[in-house]
Amino acid sequence: SIIEVDDNPRLGMSIDSHFTEQKTHLVNENVLFFYTDELTEAKNSKGDKWGDKRLQALLESSFRMNSKELVSRIQKAITQHTDGSPLHDDITMMAIKYPYLHILHLLFYL
Fold first, then answer.
1. CB distance 40 to 52 below 8 Å
2. What residues pair up with 16 in beta bridges, in sequence order?
3. How far is it, in rounded angstroms, from Cα 96 to Cα 104?
4. Which among 70, 94, 100, 104 is most buried, taking Cβ atoms within 10 Å?
């Protein structure tokens, strides 16, 4: 299942930003997934955003994958969705699978 987090300011936006603290208990096979906003805002040639719902569905259907496979699957889905349309910002993703802590960073540049 997906655990929603409180809406907080973007990291690095201001040194005066304040964040709420949330706690949860991780169990075997849980995945922490972090991403920049262009991931869900990436548009296809018709102007349709990839969106939160597509990301959530893909995450929920990929829970058995390791971190590298998960990020690769999302990268392929974004590439298919945008189909050559230019990105307006970079995309950064990081997946951490508990308890193995396999970490993968994947960056796309304009």
1. yes
2. none
3. 7
4. 70
pLDDT, tens only, 48-96 = 999 999 999 999 999 888 888 999 999 999 999 999 899 988 898 988 8
CA distances from 42 to 12, 67, 104 (A): 21, 21, 21
Greatest alpha-carbon span in the chain? 41
Flag whether the pTM goes above 0.70: yes
Task: Compute φ and ψ for 98, nearest 5 degrees.
Answer: -85, 140
Adjacency order of strands within the sheet including 91-97: 31-35, 91-97, 102-108
Q: Do the Cβ atoms of 60 and 2 come closer than 8 Å?
A: yes
Q: What is the pLDDT of residues 60-69, one digit of tens each?
A: 999 888 888 9
Structure-token pair, residue 17: 């930003």
Please give the structure tokens belonging to residue 67.
């971190």
Count the helices and strands in the chain (H runs, E runs). Answer: 3, 3
Residue 109 has pLDDT above 70, yes or no: no
Amino acid at 68: K
